[in-house]
Amino acid sequence: MKKVIMGNHALSWGAQLGRAQVIAAYPITPQTQVVELLSEMCASHSLDAKFIKVESEHSAMAALLGASIAGARTFTATSSHGLALMHELLHWAAIGRLPVVMGNINRALAPGWSIWADQNDSLSQRDTGWMQYYCASNQEVLDTTIQAFKVSEALAIPSMIMLDAFALSHTYEVVDIPDQDKVDAYLPPFRPKLRLSSDDPHAFGGLTSPEHYFELRYKQQKDMERAPALIEETGKEYEKMFGRRLDLVEDYMCSGAEIVFITSGTAGYTARVAVDALRQEGIKAGNLRMRVFRPFPFAIVREIAGRAGRVAVVDRNLSWGCHGIFYQEVKSALYGHTNGLPVFGYVAGLGGRDITPQTFKDIARDALKRKLPAEEIVWIGVKR
Amino acid sequence: MKKKKTLDRIVLASESEFPMMPMSLGTMHYNRTGAWRNIKPVIELDKCIQCGICWKFCPDVSIVIRDEYPVVDYDYCKGCGICAEECPSKCIAMVEEEK
Fold it and tell me: B15 at the A interface (CB within 8 A)?
């Protein structure tokens, strides 16, 4: 069934098709229509889930941790400051090995108060141990939500699904909504090996001494290292059943390119328009859109970017006193794997400033004339 | 799960023996948390009406019912005083610990 829906509702549909059993959410700003539609779905019984309204995002995640450890499939959504308020419990979910799935609308942090696109909210949670997907279309949002349940539950690692504010969250697109019975065949019910149950009592998360904590973190990382292959495998399975492939990255004309943009989120689709325009001007450009950021897809980034003439990483985020965050990560992934490949970093579109095809043309022009990366951040489109 | 016991503590030898999740490995067997206590509940059983309220309210499961009367498990009671506060017949006194 095809429907014209907004990005926020693509998350809601994904959670409904994934048969989320417990949804806990704080309903006020910076919340979006994701949970509004889910509450309607619960009220009308089109989704058989317990919907828990809570007093903060911190409590929303806390409620889901309890539900998840009892063996329920859990979902929530938030944005910017709401995600920041959850921070403590994001660690608790990941270290506790609870496969919560959450949508996060990438919005800038205040002050000044902003509800526009910026990735600093989710990238500030980079080291909490969640998998991170960055989506570029409403279809991808829905498909990713279903896939995320499957991958998260197989690895016992939570997943965060990112949508750019407005550019995706409030933009309407045609979305193919798969049949429930096919989704059920792809995504079996959540049956964790260990859970809180009076039939087999255990205490979880209690005092863990130095002689045991280290090994638990080792196992967590080992399971995270299994994630790239599992995302590819479940992405191919998804393609077989639904006709759409879900990969770690999207390679758009990178083969033989003299310049490859590395992008994420909706900027990754804008970049494709820019690549077409640049190729008409005779510049062989390509675009590598990173759909998955955690786990970092080292192998495929090295393979695709490593063949480029040069690489320009475009960040809608910034680590103050350093550089764009994808830029740092790409450089560290390529280090020692490429022979002197120049990698340039650009910061654009903070706080919802539009990233347009012209942004990428400006970036390409700059990157093609540089020999070495700039010491300072290269800002694109700042008024000065 | 293979367990190596040293002084009642469960120490796992290799990560492969670990459960996936951080979960209790029986620390209560060796960690007698009653030592944290400054004051202790003492129950005057003559006045006890066997209502079970102290047993129900104890947050650390440190009151057990034996022969229909409450008995404090001093290995784990931390002396919070909730039992004394809730007892309707006021038969539980909180007494200073002597060291």
Answer: yes
